[in-house]
Amino acid sequence: MKQIALTALAVTTVIILHAQAQPATAVKETKRWYETFSIRGYVQVRYNRLLETNPKLKCEQCDRSVGENGGFIIRRGRIILSGNLTNNIYFYIQPDFGSSTGTTQNIFQVRDAYMDISFDKKNEFRLRVGQSKVPFGFENMQSSQNRLPLDRNDGLNSAVSNERDLGAFFYWAPKDRREMFTAFVRDNFKGSGDYGVAAFGLYNGQTANRAEQNKNLHAVARFSYPFKIGSQIIEPGVQAYAGKYVLPADLRSAGVKAANNFEFDDKRVAASFIVYPKPLGIQAEYNWGKGPQYNPVKDSIEVRNLDGGYITVSYRAALKNGMCLFPFTRVQQYNGGKKHELDARKYNVKEMETGLEWQLNKNFEFTVSYVLSQRRFEDNKAKNNFQKGNYMRMQAQLNF
Length: 400
Hints:
The protein is mainly beta. The protein has helices at 2-21, 138-141, 154-157, 175-186, and strands at 38-50, 73-86, 89-101, 104-118, 125-133, 164-172, 198-203, 218-224, 227-229, 232-246, 257-258, 263-275, 280-295, 300-315, 317-318, 324-337, 346-361, 364-378, 386-399.
């Protein structure tokens, strides 16, 4: 027995010495697909009723807490999951727990859910499939996490409620322009994100989280090209879309009339001109088109002309320790219908908002602004409804 034990010990010693003598083999560690994921988001908490002069002044498509019965509100609560499954397949999912319907707030609802499929090694040619932003208007595509005015302008935002729809969109941009689009957001110059130099797409046309109502798809095209002049960066752009929109039954008052079974021509063209804040910024857009609009004289919904736009002037003051100040003023006007509201509500809007965004650091910012507004908004239940007033707004935003 003793001899067997000594023999086993000798064999073990030889094996160990042999293993130590072998050269170390490098183990190549590769990330698993789920290790490439990113989780981030932001939360906005608002109060809009300081120094309010008219509680009847409201804006349904903007912020429903403006005016009477409004109070503190979680305007947005976004959690963003994104990542590259392979070099050519990217996904992006963004739910929101700040949505509302009627008097019920903080409903969990999908905002984005799409995949990008690239067709080349540089990822310059991409096909985006799913629910995502429709490439129409710079401010529409600019994230609310980055935008200075607390709500989007009425003129272009009336084109696509919540800025999103379900469809397929083709984007192209050379690598150097894609890097610029990314830098405009990353380096805190209030960019809109990477939506390509050229974009084309087909989508349902009924807006996000609503089922299609006909066999007619909307078509959209956009061209935008950023370039440098000295220290400034300028980005002009043009965009257009066309389709047939069906006003859903839940957005029609009893007895209101319309031809063609509530199906309407819906088409627009817009121009954009952006000067990034280095340090002075200018953001201007205007659109023209046709769409459904309530006619209070005939108590009917008709295809009517529309137009509207805005100009925002801002200044970027970078301070120490990551602190940054953005004073801004936006003037806007809109004359036309809002197809996503009751009876394609008729609007005439003139408004100015001036304020200051204070970024304490990359994780927290506070915005205060003052609004001077006059709005005429009419539907079957509220004819000859003209409201004028002023109010102060405040928003705390957490980025994570």
